[in-house]
Structures are given as C-alpha cells and as structure tokens.
Prior knowledge:
The complex is a heterodimer of chains A (294) and B (416). Chain A is mainly alpha-helical and 294 residues long. Chain A has one domain (20-228). Chain A has helices at residues 3-34, 41-59, 65-87, 97-119, 146-167, 169-179, 181-186, 191-213, 223-238, 243-263, 268-282; strands at residues 124-125, 135-138, 141-144, 218-219. A two-stranded antiparallel ribbon of chain A has the order 1-4. A two-stranded antiparallel sheet of chain A has the order 2-3. The longest helix of chain A has 32 residues, at 3-34. In chain B, helix 2 (46-64) packs across helix 12, helix 3 (86-98) runs parallel beside helix 4 and helix 6 crosses helix 7 (185-201). Chain B folds into two domains: 33-152 and 293-371, 3-Layer(aba) Sandwich (Rossmann fold), CATH 3.40.50.2300; 155-287, Rossmann fold. In chain B, the strands form three sheets. Chain B has a seven-stranded mixed sheet with strand order 6-5-7-8-9-13-14. In chain B, strands 2-1-3-4 form a four-stranded parallel sheet, with helices on both faces. Helix content of chain B is 49%, strand content 18%. Chain B has helices spanning 2-29, 46-64, 86-98, 111-123, 137-140, 154-172, 185-201, 221-230, 241-251, 256-259, 269-274, 298-311, 317-336, 341-348, 397-400, 404-415; strands at 33-39, 75-81, 104-106, 127-129, 176-181, 206-211, 234-238, 261-266, 284-287, 352-355, 358-363, 368-369, 373-379, 388-395. The chains are: A mainly alpha (294), B alpha/beta (416).
Amino acid sequence: MEFSFIFSQFLSGLTYGMILFLVASGLSLIFGVMNILNFAHATLWLIGAYFCYSFWYLMQGYNFALWVSIPLAGFACAAVGWVTEIVLIKHIYKRELHEQLLITYALALIFADLIKIVWGPTDRLIARPPAIQKPVFIFGAPFDSYFIFVILAGFAVALGLWWFLKYTRYGHIVKAAVFSREMVGALGIPIPKIYTWVFTLGIFIAGFAGGVQAPIGSVNFGMDIAIIIQAFCVVVIGGFGSLLGTLVGAIIVGEVFSFAILYWPAGAMVLIFVITAAILIIRPWGLFGTPMRT
Amino acid sequence: MKSKALKIVFVFVALVFLVGLAGSGKVMSAEPYNLGVALGFTGAGTLYSKDQLEGIHVAVDEINAKGGFLGKYPIKVFQRDTQTKPDVGVREVKDLILRDKVRAVINAYSSAVAVAVKPICREYKTLHIPALSNSENITKINYSPYTFQVAPNTYMQAKAAVLAIAKMAKDKGWKEYVTLASDYEWGRSTQEEVVKELKKVAPQLKLKKEFWPRLGETQFTSFITSIMAMKPDFVYPCLASKDNVSFIEQAKPYGFFEKVTFAGGMVSVTELIIEAKTIPRGLVAITRAPFFAHLDVPMMVNFVKNYRAKYKKYPSDWAVMGYDAVYSLKQGIEKAKTIDTDKVKDAMKGLTVDLTRGKLRFRPIDNQLSCSSYVGVVGDDPKYPFPILKDVIEVKGAESERPEAEIVAARKAEQK
C-alpha cells in the first residue's frame, strides 16, 4: 500500500480521536472533580450540534456563520448545563454511582425527547462555506480540509484545559477538590459553587464539540447513543479524571479503529472493546489515572 | 268534450312526468366518483405526499374537464393525513369509506400503513392503489384482489439496481468492488443478496472487501480513506437512510465521488430538485418514475406541460405515479363500462394500461404493474435548473419482477 494512503488513514484516525477527545474531556473532567458519571453528556453534545445548526441557519447568508456558531453552541449548551446542575445534579452528588447513572440516563432520554420536540426528527444539514468544501492534499493523500480545524480545535481544548488546571487559581482549587473536597471546603472555598462551574465548563466543552461535529455529515437524532459508548472507552483507557489520559486514550481509540478498518474491517469495534476490557482488568484506573481517591 | 279535455290533461301530465324522469335521470348520472387520497401529509412523508397529491389533481382536472369517468362521473377528491402511522391510516381510510363513500383510495406514504390498510379495503370492497409506498409485501402475500400497485416494488428495485450495475460493469470493464453495509439485519441481508445476485449476472466481478459500519455511525472518515486507498471500480452501499446521508456528506469534501463510483441508493426527482446545488455529481442512483426518461411518450409530455402550468415546477416521481394511479383507474372503469367497484376490480386484473411510462400491464397474480426502474448517473443538464440522471438504464418490469412460482410458494408458506 502506498505511503500516502497509510498517512491518510493515520489522519483519519487522528481526526476521529480528536472528536472523541472533545466529547470525552468534559465527561472525564466532571467525573474527576465531581464523581458524577454523566450518561447524558453525549446527548448534551448532540444538543450542541443542533444549537450550532440553528445559529448557522439564522446567519447563513454570512461567510463567518459557521465559525461563530460553533462557540455559540458551546455557550448555549453551557447555559443548559448550568440550569441542569442547579435543578438536578446538585441533589445527586452523594448518591450511589448506580443511582447517578440511572438518573443521568433518564436525563439523556428527556433531552432526546426535547430535541425531537424542538428540532423534529428530520436530519439537519449545514452547508459548508466554499473554503472547506474541497479536500486538501497532504503528501498526496486527500484530506477533508475542515478536519484541520477539528484537529486544531482538539489540541486547543487540551492545551486550554491544561493551562487552566496548572496555572490558574481556580484550576488549583479544582485539582485539589479531586483529591479532598472536605479539605478544600474547610479552607472556606464554596465547594457547591465550584461544582456548578466545573459542570458548566464540562458541558460547554460538550456543546463546543457538538458544534465542531455539526458540519461533518448531517446532524441527526440518535447520534449521541453511537458516541457515548466510545467516549466511555476513551476515559476508561486513559483514566477517569486525567486530561492527558483522555487525550492519549482518544488517539489510541481513533487510530486503532482507523487502521482496523483498513486491514480488518469486521474487527474494528471488537478491538476497541478488547483493549478497554484489558485495561479494566490490568489497570482499572486507566493508563494515566491514579488509584488514589477520597 | 270532457273526455277530450281529460285526454289532453293526461298527455300533458305524462309529458311532464317523462321530462321530469329524463331530468332526474340526468341528475342520477351526475353522481360524483368519490376518490380518497390518504397519504402522510405531515411528518417524514410530507414532501413526497404533497407531490403525489398534485399529480393526482392534474389527472382529476383533465378527466373532469371531459365530464369525469365515463364522461359522466366527475371525480371528487377526499384528502386525509395518515401521519405515517398504521393505526391513523386505518382509522382515516375507514372514515373515508364509511363517511365519504369513496370507491377507491390512493394510499400510503409508508408501506407499513399500506399493509395495514389493505385488509380494510378488501373488507369494504374498496379499490386500494398504493402509488408511493412500495414494499413487496403489499402485493406478494396476504393477497387482496382490490389492491393494485403502480410503483415498482422493493424487489423490482433491488433486482434492477443489480442488473444495471452488472451492465455498467460490462460496458466499463469493471473488475473489483467493495460493499459498505450497515451492520444490522437489513444491511447484512441486503448485502448478502446483492453479492449473490452480482455473482450470477456478472461473475467476472470480484468482491475485494466488505465494510460494516455500525447502524447510526457518525464518523465515516476512516471508511472513506480506506475505500479510496483500495481504489475499487465501484462501491455498492447498503446503508440505512440516515447513514447514507451522513456518508455522502462526509465523503464529498474528500472528492470521493470524483474518484470512486458509488451506487448511492434512491435519488428521486424530489432530491434532484431540492439538493440541486449539493448533490454529488457522478453518483449512481436508482429511481422509480423520472419524467425525463419518458419524454418520448406523448402522455408524459402532456402531463409535464399541465403540471408545470398548474404548479410552476417540474413533476417528481411521486407526482408521475399519482397521475398514473388515476389514469389506471380511469382505464379500468372504461373497460368495465361502470363505476361499480367489483366490476372495475375484475376489469383491472391483467389489464394493459396506457400511462406516462408507456404501455404497462397489471400482472394477474399480484396486480403489480409491470413498470420499469431507472438507474443513471447524477449530472447537470442545460435544459433543467437541477441535475438529472444521465445515461439512464431502464430495467423493465419483466426483467426485474419476482418469478410467479416464488410468489405462489410465499403464499403457501404464509397459509401454513
């Protein structure tokens, strides 16, 4: 096989990995800090995609419509996330994990029905601006030009989160809360408020990721179910609560999937689940996670 | 003298009575022919259903301008929305039959609705003409002598697609292909059937690889680059409808369709018009009744002219089949020389009708019209403001319909 096609497959895997990272990073952040396994995360991601479509639809005469709609989708979703946290999530922090899963699963179903009511069951298509309608050729391999933006957006979110956690005061508080929320609370820091904002940030990333997804194919009902399982695989492989782990996990899943399709299409999904199961047995806290939690 | 006066009065009364009788006779013959149209006017079927209703109205206007069926029964259309739900479809059609006294009903958008409505029409002895939904089971099993199908059914379309691809492969010297099928029951069984049929009709073709994206796959990127790397002569997809749209949208920015021949499923004139700017050129597509394939038939030319005059647009496949449904009924009534439903039903059995798509026959075993399927390549034409299918291969009904023996066997199996 020609090098250009292997390289092209690598880029496909990287793109897929970045899309998964954008979904999984918010999921991992929320679980890492708040201990909430949010099953509705991908449904909020889908709502982000629909928001992006709506904003784009309102501004479609302008060339910048898509580029403005993507971050706007993030903010609109963040608002939904903020309300959800205050109304529902706040009350389930101390519940057992299985109860949280059931409640957030119910939330996913409620959001899915809301999507049907607001946007209807019809597929929504965003017409891309002319600049990103044609492929670019990298070492002779064709590549969707929009995916350059997807990869950059993925790395930008990774860098932004890393900088936030490492260099800002709030980042330090969030990191401290991962290890001992009682201690952080004892220092006079209002933990519930921090939680609300962490949840809102996580859902902002989900909405932004949904916006990034929107111009790739059509936005349709049920996309969330397809991606949530892979997002869970990513965080299990990388380690819940670890930003670097989520990034590495996402790239592993993306590349394994991509190359399996080239050589063994029938086994592409199987391989990902085999890796996930192996990690769960050998290193349950994931590649970059830490077994220590309080 | 008195008796003479009485005679005159008697003759006068008799004359008045006779004239009155003749008049009332005229009133009786002006009884309208109530035609029901129960389609999915809201929900997913809106576009196709509206198009079909327009086609029906053009036919009704033409026939009514000449006095109606048999020149004396003006057609009155009663329209109902099935909402693409079988229970609603059954309720609405029952209401059409009992309240509006329709003698025939054109129904439905969804095959599930048509299958549910069929026994109702049989029970109430009402003609049932599906001109949009095309599941083979509407006519293959649970046979109803009142149901007449004017669209090519699912079996005919699948067979036609394979035959057309085999012909293209022969003409263009294709040797290798890959399949891309949604990984679930329908995708697996359709792919298997296609591979089996292609082996029969084009044994020189080699299946290079099978791709199985999950049902509801959102990221086709890796599949796209893999297929491009393999450089097959063509791709045969069996993707569920949403997945097909996602794949096409994601493959476009790769320039996929300029490099690989993709047999992209059904693309009707509705999609060609609505997606005129975005639909990829070069896509190989199948459709059911494109007007541009039959501009050699005067009836089609006349229909396109009248339809454009009334609606200021070109008719879609769905409009063509709606128009043909009404004209099939007209010719059945003309053969029966009455609007009595049972006699019309008997007259339509095995009847050859003149339609926009040429001279076609209702096959006696299942009342399926021997209509063609059309496979072509999406491309621009200066004559139209939207792309059409070019190099159309018309696969005739006789080549694509299921052998009668198989239908007999299926009905026997059903009775067990």
